[in-house]
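The record is kept unedited without comment:

——
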Amino acid sequence: MDIFLFDEVPDAQPTFIEPSLSYRFATVTSRLSSYIQEWTPFVLVVCYFAFSISIYMVCNEHILAIFWFIYLALNFYIAASTVLEAFLSLPPIREARRAVDKAQAKNWTFPTPDNDLPILDLVIVAYLPNEADIIKNRIHYLCNEIVYPKHLIRINCVYNTPRPIEPLETELRDMMRKYEELRIIEVPNSHSKAENLNFFFSIKTGADIIAIYDCDHYPHPYSPRWAIECRAAMTGFGLFAGSNGYWRANLLREHKMDGTMLTEDIDSTLRAFSKGWNVVHDLNVVSYELAPTSIKAFWKQRMRWAQGWTQASIRHLVPAWNKSPAERAKRRFGQRFGIFSLLFVRETSYYLVTQYTCLIFVFLITSFPHSGKELVKLIYFQYAISQWCFFTSVMCLLATLYITNIVRNEFTKRRTMILFAVLYPFYLVVIATMGIYAHARQIVAYSNWNPTARA
């Protein structure tokens, strides 16, 4: 790096200062350390697959049969759990649809009079370089489409940017003259969504409820009203996944977000649940999200989520399972089952899927099929017990698709469901590999926050 020093005399010539040897060494060391940290997870994942395949290559047939049975049995457990969750979702979904029909019949008139509604801070969080192309559109949408008394709602755009972006920032501030309920807040020296939110929580706005949305979300126009009315079905516990979450303002200002977590949203919910706070999931509080615009953006987004879930699982599995000091009764079975599946089974399922894939790969190497019949027998019917596990898993899949078809919305097409079911085994392997990769990143303490590209 070249360093130039200018004296105070006009038109003075710059004096070049040679970087010291220690500075050069520190720069090279820092770059080398970052490079190693970036690529070590990849090497670990490659070694994981190579070692797994090598182990299966030297195992005898009886040991392979044991592994095969274990993997199929665990796969059946996951499939059965999915069907159970889908089945349990039917009553609250039916109740939510009845509530919508009732509201439509009354011309969207809700029980609570407008003047009795609480003051709502609706916050959209943005990283400006990434979302510069969409942020104005989101503000216009929220200010024009959200159905809530204007004197009781504030639309807060809380953003950070590493450099000035003009004329956009000036245009954002000019929008405050058009919309009285709009506030544009730039967070100085912020490097994350958590820092943006914590800065906003330090501002005394007088709001009773704080709603948090990512900049890439389109809340349904009536979502705030549904949330405030709290016509919700209790499902044991719910999750705030970074957007479309409504919090009591006094609790959230005390709770804050943990900027050390890659998925501070999941962490915030699990911390609240561990404290014994009441968490509600309302199916009518709907928000639509933009998808990543490229494979690279998809990879960065899912890797950040996967590692963030790993961090949250490590931190919260035991505290969320145990009874909080504020609770008198023990956690219900449904709550414990949900926590166990969400935090433990999900993380370990990555190894189940990848190990099963490695085992099939070994079978392909050692007993390469020469026909479709041999291929089907190789993958699914190696052993007698596998027939029972296979057919029960297929029945679970069909049952899940049937229930999904019952509750699907207007954006979900049947052909899309069928296509997803066909491609799901391959998608599952990709997601499981990303989960293993996230574990490797966690081992080497990889902590870069990579925002998802938007357009």
Q: What stands out?
A: The mean pLDDT is 81. The longest helix spans residues 21-58.
